[in-house]
């Protein structure tokens, strides 16, 4: 009799898994880390851009991990994320409606009950891993029809030094901003029109532009999108003006390194930043962070609840008062290594806030 698998999990929504994993499917292979709290998928390219998504165990109806007493996690392994996505959409899982949802998240618009997309949304997904080194078994079932796929697993590459990814020093952040993801998506889309080679992030806590994105090196010239600050004449409740921040941000903090004259200006390869485009369009919020070494983190919060994003505007104050429950949101994190040594003008080579901070603990788990 076969021994019990070391890991099994069941999801009632193959579409959720497919949509989250597709956000980071910019390379052929993904490294997988299975823990008691969930599954972390990591994809990287040339060690200058990395995408991570964490599938919390709350996303699954059942989640079982059988480890010895001296084990805390399974050895990481890699799989073909392209093959995994093809398996998850074996019954023709459809993308959300092409109509724009300005608040991010999963769209509830799939046509009527007789359209092909409406008939393709269903399907449960069962993941099974017999033992380290064994294939990852995926069983997709819709009604009385089921299909099973065994995906070969491979030895994972050597981990990075920090948390299994491009290291972001959270104790030395020089920029942190939280805003609606659609604002960032619109800015990147606008800059794409000049086909730039580099994206310049420009931020200051003293003078304008307080927060701006620039496209440089394109054949049609340079372009800039500036996020305008609050009016200087708007008083705070105490009657005195507070610190300046862009209107579109919920949180905005700039702490430039010493000798940078109060401004951060860092360059990144534009094509690499565009790898996060799918997550930008799907997410409701994004946390933009940069450390003193210039590593840029874009962490996207994606609402998963059916009623969370149905095209109607949400009450942000109510959402802030009641943090999302586990399983109602998922996080996708992109990290980018800066371009250095070729910018003479560079002055620095370098939900709620609590929701993003809690997710960092999941990404940093061994």
Task: Give a brief rundown of this model.
With 366 residues, the protein is an alpha+beta fold.
Would you give an account of this structure?
It is found in: Nucleus. This is Cell cycle checkpoint protein. Pfam families: Rad1. It comes from Capronia coronata CBS 617.96. One of its GO terms (biological process) is DNA repair. The relative contact order is 0.17. The longest helix has 11 residues, at about 180-190. The protein has a 10-stranded antiparallel beta sheet, sandwiched between helices. The chain has 2 domains: about 5-155, Proliferating Cell Nuclear Antigen (Box); about 175-365, Roll (DNA Polymerase III, Chain A, domain 2), CATH 3.10.150. About 15% of the residues lie in helices and about 30% in strands. The two termini are about 30 Å apart. The model is unreliable at about 95-100, about 105-120, about 230-240, about 305-320 and about 345-350 (pLDDT under 50). It has about 375 residues and is of the alpha+beta class. The chain has helices spanning about 15-20, 80-90, 115-120, 180-190, 270-275, 275-280, 315-320, 355-365, and strands at about 5-10, 30-35, 40-45, 50-55, 60-65, 75-80, 125-130, 135-140, 145-150, 155, 175-180, 200-205, 210-215, 225, 250-255, 265-270, 285-290, 295-305, 330-335.
């Amino acid at each position: 009799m076969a021994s019990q698998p070391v890991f099994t999990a069941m999801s009632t929504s193959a579409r959720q898994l497919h949509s989250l994993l597709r956000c980071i499917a910019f390379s052929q292979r993904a490294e997988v880390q299975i823990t008691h709290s969930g599954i972390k998928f990591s994809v990287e390219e040339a060690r200058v851009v990395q995408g991570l998504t964490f599938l919390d165990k709350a996303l699954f109806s059942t989640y079982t991990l059988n480890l010895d007493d001296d084990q805390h996690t399974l050895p990481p392994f890699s799989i073909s994320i392209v093959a995994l996505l093809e398996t998850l959409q074996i019954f023709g899982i459809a993308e959300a409606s092409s109509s724009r949802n300005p608040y991010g998240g999963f769209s509830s618009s799939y046509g009527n009950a007789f359209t092909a997309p409406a008939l393709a949304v269903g399907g449960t997904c069962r993941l099974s891993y017999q033992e380290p080194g064994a294939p990852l078994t995926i069983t997709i079932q819709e009604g009385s029809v089921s299909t099973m796929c065994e995906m070969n697993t491979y030895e994972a590459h050597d981990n990075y030094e920090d948390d299994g990814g491009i290291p972001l020093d959270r104790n030395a952040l020089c920029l942190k901003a939280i805003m609606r993801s659609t604002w960032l998506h619109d800015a990147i889309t606008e800059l794409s029109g000049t086909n730039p080679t580099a994206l310049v992030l420009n931020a200051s806590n003293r003078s304008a532009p307080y927060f701006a994105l620039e496209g440089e090196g394109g054949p049609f010239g340079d372009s800039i999108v500036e996020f305008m600050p609050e009016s200087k004449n708007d008083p705070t409740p105490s009657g005195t003006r507070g610190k300046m921040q862009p209107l579109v941000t919920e949180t905005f903090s700039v702490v430039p390194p010493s000798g940078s004259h109060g401004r951060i200006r860092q360059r990144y390869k534009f094509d690499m930043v565009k790898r996060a485009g799918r997550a930008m369009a799907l997410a409701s919020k994004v946390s933009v962070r940069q450390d003193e070494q210039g590593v840029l983190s874009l962490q996207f919060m994606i609402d998963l609840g059916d009623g969370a994003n149905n095209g109607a505007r949400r009450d942000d104050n109510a959402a802030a008062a009641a943090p999302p429950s586990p399983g109602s949101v998922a996080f996708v994190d992109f990290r980018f290594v800066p371009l250095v040594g070729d910018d003479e003008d560079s002055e620095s080579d370098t939900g709620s806030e609590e929701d993003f901070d809690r997710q960092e603990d999941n990404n940093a788990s061994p």
